[in-house]
Amino acid sequence: MASAQGPVYSPVELLARLVAFDTTSHKSNLGIVAFIEDYLLQHGIVSQRVTSADGQKANLFASIGPSERSGVALSGHMDVVPVEGQNWESDPFTVRESGGRYFGRGTADMKGFLACVLAAAPDFKRRALKTPIHIAFSYDEEIGCIGVRPMIDAFGKALPKPRLVIVGEPTSMQVVDAHKGPIRWHVEITGRAAHSSMAPLGVNAITYAAMLIGELSRIEADLKARVQDERFNPPYATLQVTRLEGGTASNIIPVSCWFGFEVRALPGLDAAYIERRMRDYAEAVCLPEMRRVAPEAAISIVRTNAVPPFGADAGSEVVALALKLAEQNATHAVSYATEAGLFQDAGSPSVVCGPGDIAQAHTANEWIAASELQKCMAFLDRLGHWAERPAGR
Question: Is 0.70 topped by the overall pTM?
């Protein structure tokens, strides 16, 4: 089917095209970017790229409607998680329909939302919008919300700064106004090697890693006792070691060990408190013991990434708008993370609402229900009506 402007596809047709691009985070996404650019351009919608430093990936930003004012951004990420090691019943990059469900990598997280936005774009373009609708598609969300940051940095400069942002992560089209945020650290322990039969001559890096991990457990217990929010499951910030490696041979005292850990922080949590506790424990307990044997012993604690926890402001315009468009009365909180906190911290109030069930994300035989795509299209249609009104009212 074609319009005067360009081809018009259903959300399912666009979903199939988007899923066909293998946009696993360690690969280039320029193929899907070029496809979306071309599709939008055929409808008279010009896109702008914000490219990664190596030129292998890009964010895509486009505006529909009046250019003299800021509007509502529809935000989603183009990357997906790997399929290796998963037992798929069909090609993960070919959409398969069965029983009202569409199977394929990224159908739920979150190419279903991207497909709906692109399917709605010709209708947005046709309307006499008073408030612009922005399309903000990012890369590398799955590895720590990396790609969206340079796009956000361009807001108010090369790109218009959105007044409001709707992040279309899978929420089963429920309105989410709060989520936890992962903050990650890398810890390196350097001791001294010795023959394992002469243990007192060495400093066992793995032993001190274990002591530091024990301190993490005590920190989590303190957080659990002090700060809880029953909207979340679990209702407290969780701390966990995510990776650990050390030692070289069974007859050598390990000279080095490293581990990674993260906190899933509640909104308002002071992440610096966790880092201070770890540094204080390293300086007061571990290093004095280590340096009595090995003056060169060291412990390094480095924050490697932070996706801020998200909590919408009370009475937020964007939350009220999302509830109206979703035809709902209540908001929800979730424990997974999105780009919403980054937008919000940059001055663009945000909310999360998108098609699909988060329980299907990242799984083998990932799927999205046809009914979810239909609900999202109805949501976007109501957004178009709202944006036609004076000042988006």
Answer: yes
